[in-house]
């Protein structure tokens, strides 16, 4: 019998939606009049980049257009948004279905210059990324690897690296590109691509980047939080990736600019992509504390290849240990400030709220800006819902990651019973430590129990922090940073159990499948005449006799 | 402002599917040849009743027909069943969608006598029952009241009483009907309807009947169990009802038959409906222990009205404290046995399995036959998913019930935080005790907390039994008897909280709805300029300064 040969894992097929090509609703054409609006691309060689940050009047005009379009066409302020949100939430459980037509509409309402950017961005993704990605949102494009793909290698192949865009994908010529330093630096300068690659010491770091929305789906399944302007995509457990990033440390470049003025506390990054907040466009702008310039890389290569457009070509920031939102792509300006960036992606998004704040009372000032990521882990195999055939031990594998500085993943444990007993991954079952990267792990977990089991994993960092027990322990209104113990439910078949072996042999004899689990047995579970005889003879007495 | 007037509860509209008329797939016509098959209704005045129990040859023939039809038409033994099961499970979350075409097909394949029974049964339901029922399964018909309807009165109005059929609904003339006693009684007799009503002391009891599948949906959402031949319908929390049942005690009638022979241990009930197990038809037959004849009523009235066809007219059993499956409808025969009934509804269904048994190894003999129901309760208001506006206390109401004998509901408690703190229902908040009926309750629960909250309830019986904490504590392969603490998730808005009051006032001013909760605020959560000023001035410092 095949099933006795080895402990095998079969997918029930209900884990992951097949990636499909999402095109969004690109049919909206009203208000698109050639030359009627002032919005222009900034310079030759910078396709998909409008310098909103230098044109406050353009930002206001764009907002006025979108406000008016929204008010004129809609019965209530959030009517179309509401429909879109509802559709999104309805499909939260089936990763792969969010189209992002609302965000597309923002661009397409603003005239011919922006009109094609959503469709072009999708073409870029199709050209550069693997067809095996799970699409979480088509525009802005958000996609992640499958569970099978992501743990094949410690270094994620570029086409499989997750993508979390906040707007369009600019296409910038290397030769046209420059990086401008300003604000509270002693000697503001501009650096060309050629200078960046040749004038400074080059450094390569192995670094995992994780989205702050990693594993958000678990929070959303617990309770719906904000589906904000940025569209809080229902990421599963693969919104992270690991690469060898090559570039120049930010400290080196700041030194080149004569160092920082005394009151500089934060470094603001400008990305060339266009992003909207409350109908107002801007470039994607966030900041990091000045101390992070030491290990932040201004990168031009990803795993030895030039950056692709999807990943921020020609140059991006890589901020180790921080949420991916700080590793700005299509980077063109860095400005030293005496405070964190006031731009909305820094000041009004990526905020971590307290438990008693929600839509009924939250203010931006009730949250804090998210920086370093906490210890987290997830099970990639088996998959949720699988029937697992085994001989008393179930092989479990996954990833573990922590952010921050001077920190790493120290230990991983797996529980076969929802957190009652824990089994550590042995030393030989986990990949090497990195200062800034994840570890992949595999462990065989003793599992005498059969039927539906709740498997869960937890990791420990160098300072002995571990993960919260329940999703609700860390649930927050913006559903960021899900790092509670990851749970999967499997159906365990211990083939060393004689009753199970006998049942599987019987099914095999009748060519009857075991799965789907809930479909009734195709054969009698025991000899009916014998069973009824036992009842008749009182051998299965239900009532006491005295 | 309207919302400050009182603590009000608004439905988010996502709780209950609207009842819709389910017709099933009644298009199957193959093999229906007039006169070609021997299956006949038993007697005039007994429409919808075939005496399968007296015709073992008919049972075998019917099984052969269905086996052949299945094998000839289907690629694998459970192919069509599987599709049906999958459809059912996919719709488990939306009560109201199970059509029961597989069960209809059993009837329609067996020739013109049975062909119209599924459709006729549905017509009977439509005529006799409330249009407000939630249909859980169209054929065999299963339906329950809504949460709002069920707690309006301690005595459930007949049209709202839940219905759990196992087959068709027979239409039996009172004048044709008789009840036959046999087996291990000293003096076997037959009783007419006239005799039953006039020759014996009449007794009325107030009795709650609950399906063993009550609250099954909670187990199914935890993990899919068997979707067996009987179709384990995804009942929510209303598969129970309370009525004043009038009739004659079974003890009285057994005495009339000269009492029981010494070795009689069980009393077997025969119902006139047709039910199928593994393609083999039979009448619906189960049994109860002889001790239960003391309080079992052979009933002909429900709340002072003659029984309707849907509820077993002209006569049914009512077995207090036991699962509804033992209160046989369309009763026509009672047989004393020296063991529990060997019929499949008793010996192969309604079995309670151990935790380590499942599809991989269960045998009927691993289960025990379910009798008395344990202590249970459920919250009927607020409803899962509701946004609740309140002034620091939330009004919660529901039902509590326990089965068994010499037992009753003693106490009910509600927790506003998933079982951490418990608040008892005060004496004046709960309806009177009955020996055999539920109690309805209301309690105001102190709730300072806001946002998504996990409310749960538990009841205590006279012997201080209470409910298990988690669904998984009692999860079993046949998903019977869900009595773990019932949980609902609400969104709490404490309007005495100044920050919430201010937010609601702001939304009111802008005519902006609060719900749906996950749709972004239509207004700024605080003054943006002031907030950004605080960041600029370092008042919200994220980094330590020394």
Describe this protein's structure.
The structure is a homodimer of 546-residue chains. With 546 residues, the first copy, chain A, is an alpha+beta fold. Chain A folds into 2 domains: 2-9 and 373-494, Immunoglobulin-like, CATH 2.60.40.650; 47-351 and 360-369, Oxidoreductase, molybdopterin-binding domain (Sulfite Oxidase, Chain A, domain 2). The first copy, chain A, is built from 13 helices and 26 strands. Chain A has helices spanning 56-73, 79-90, 101-108, 112-115, 117-128, 147-150, 193-198, 216-222, 250-256, 344-347, 471-474, 498-509, 528-536, and strands at residues 9-10, 46-47, 134-137, 142-144, 163-164, 171-172, 178-183, 190-192, 203-210, 240-249, 266-277, 280-289, 297-302, 305-306, 316-318, 331-337, 351-352, 368-369, 376-381, 387-390, 393-401, 409-415, 423-424, 439-446, 451-461, 486-494. Chain A has a 6-stranded mixed β-sheet with strand order 1-20-26-25-22-23, with no helix packed on it. A 5-stranded mixed β-sheet of chain A has the order 8-7-16-11-12. In chain A, strands 9, 10, 13, 14 and 15 form a 5-stranded antiparallel β-sheet that branches. Chain A starts with 8 loop residues before the first strand and ends in a 10-residue tail after the last helix. Chains A and B meet through α2, β18, β25, β26 and α12 of A and α2, β18, β25, β26 and α12 of B.
